[in-house]
Amino acid sequence: MSGSPRDHLTFGDSLAAHVARRESQIVLGLDPDPARLWPAASGSGRVAADDALLEFILATAGRLGADVASVRVSAQASVAVLEHCRAVIDAVGPACVALKPQAACFERLGAAGWLVLEAVCRHARSAGLLVLLDGKRGDVPVTASVYGEAMLSGAPSPFGRLPGLGADAMTGNPLLGRDAMTALVEAARAGGRGVFALVRTSNPGAADVMDVALQDGGRLWEHLARLVSSLGEGGRGPASGLSDVGAVTGATAPEHLARMRELMPHAPFLLPGVGAQGGDVESLGPAFAPGRAAGLITASRSIVNAYEQSASSPAHAARSEAERLRGLAWSLV
Amino acid sequence: MSGSPRDHLTFGDSLAAHVARRESQIVLGLDPDPARLWPAASGSGRVAADDALLEFILATAGRLGADVASVRVSAQASVAVLEHCRAVIDAVGPACVALKPQAACFERLGAAGWLVLEAVCRHARSAGLLVLLDGKRGDVPVTASVYGEAMLSGAPSPFGRLPGLGADAMTGNPLLGRDAMTALVEAARAGGRGVFALVRTSNPGAADVMDVALQDGGRLWEHLARLVSSLGEGGRGPASGLSDVGAVTGATAPEHLARMRELMPHAPFLLPGVGAQGGDVESLGPAFAPGRAAGLITASRSIVNAYEQSASSPAHAARSEAERLRGLAWSLV
Prior knowledge:
The structure is a homodimer.
Chain A: H1 11-22, E1 26-30, H2 48-63, H3 68-92, E2 98-101, H4 103-107, H5 111-126, E3 130-137, H6 141-153, E4 169-172, H7 178-189, E5 194-200, H8 206-209, H9 220-231, E6 245-249, H10 257-263, E7 269-271, E8 295-299, H11 301-304, H12 314-330
Parallel strand pairs in A: 1-2, 1-8, 2-3, 3-4, 4-5, 5-6, 6-7, 7-8
Helix pairs in contact in A: 2-3, 3-5, 3-12, 6-7
């Protein structure tokens, strides 16, 4: 990857450059469900490599002792998911700055799903998109480093360099504290990549733990926000001022955004919850105060399934919805 | 899987039956590092299926557009890791009740690593071990369900039933609150499986967040412990009294164990940190108050790498250390 921006730029500067070049703050979430793929993803878009995938998984997993009928299901579902993801990226990618694949949905497909995840990351990169891998990983330091290697940078080994998924950033869970997060951040920073730590998620249950009141008078999410800000101090981009440690900040709690920006002045915010989860893009102004790349708007089902409320084709409806969000967000700064 | 215990027993009862039958509370942690495999895992133990793995990963990932040299590294490292894991399970399994594979270490190997993880889970089951998958997953409810399907039970799909990894239990991260954890627990409970939620981990940084003081006078880990206890209420085994929602409770803070048992009277505890991380098995008495299966002792590097401080072979040194831990723990009740 010599000569690529990540050899020279911090994640914050790379992100800001991508947002400016693509004129978009929209992050396309991909959480493919084999029961809800685009109608076209059922054979017509299949290419030779997909059949190779199917053949490979069947032969190998069978010889490793797996139940062949079960493996056939995984392989067929994986091929359909790959076709779907390629079609979605081709249709919607031009309106977006990044792709956010949801790791769980690929893991559900087994080893074939991980092959598909790798192929989807490559397809996104070739479409000019950053890849923000959404796996919400968090573990003790030695293991957090391994997750960083798996998702982001790869790792040396006696067999040669393990490639890893090569994502530009990953989501991380800060419950295990500073040393655990530092291990993730160091793995990211060494390669000019980033981490988005959970600060306040968009599900109703987030109130149960992240909103708990602390002895110091604040809420747990404010404590996590300070940790995120501190972790990012050594990784600010000189051009953008943005750090390489961002925050996942649920867009369904917009009244918190101003406070979050106060606590994390340099962190890029990843704002899920727009669309299917009920968030509202017009209320996100404070996120963008440090600049357009400081607020990334994630949408998944509201884009991918837009055709269900439309007379248009899946591709056209999805692109239209993504362009609508892009225009709305771009107008806020 | 009809006729298997999980069709009839809750996870707590299944766990208690396994502990009684195997006379062991030891959970063998597997976090394989390609740079630190058993010396024998370098070719002599290779079987035909391993070469098939290598051959097909190369052909398929290459056809899907991956860099073939990188894929070759992943495949070769994966074959060596598979041989290592099989050898460790064969040597140490008889002293243990369960295997705890660390998901990160397999993800670092890419799609080939996931194939190896699947094969390792099968190998453990055929050795009579429960499988506790350590991935510390946590996400919003819709995604938490997908993780439950991926790790534990599998899922229906239009292509047939996706098998999932079929683990007996998984570790989960409760930061996202009750609704997110409920989705994981429901996915587990439906198949007689379990979830071990992080309450207080064993790394030094755990103090930064899990020990934070709350307005109500307690610590965050006590708040998490109450959540765990409440989530487990609907899933107690009638025979053992143990619930299907356990707790990861770092053995490096033994002064907390009595309080944890008070807050979670029916939860099985997963006690990492013995051995390599500095914990001490004799101090774990309160964990076992509800019965032997209420306290599971995890050890990874202290078992697998015991030969480095010994004149014995890797297999013999590992088995000896596991038997030593097994005897110590069994004598505590």
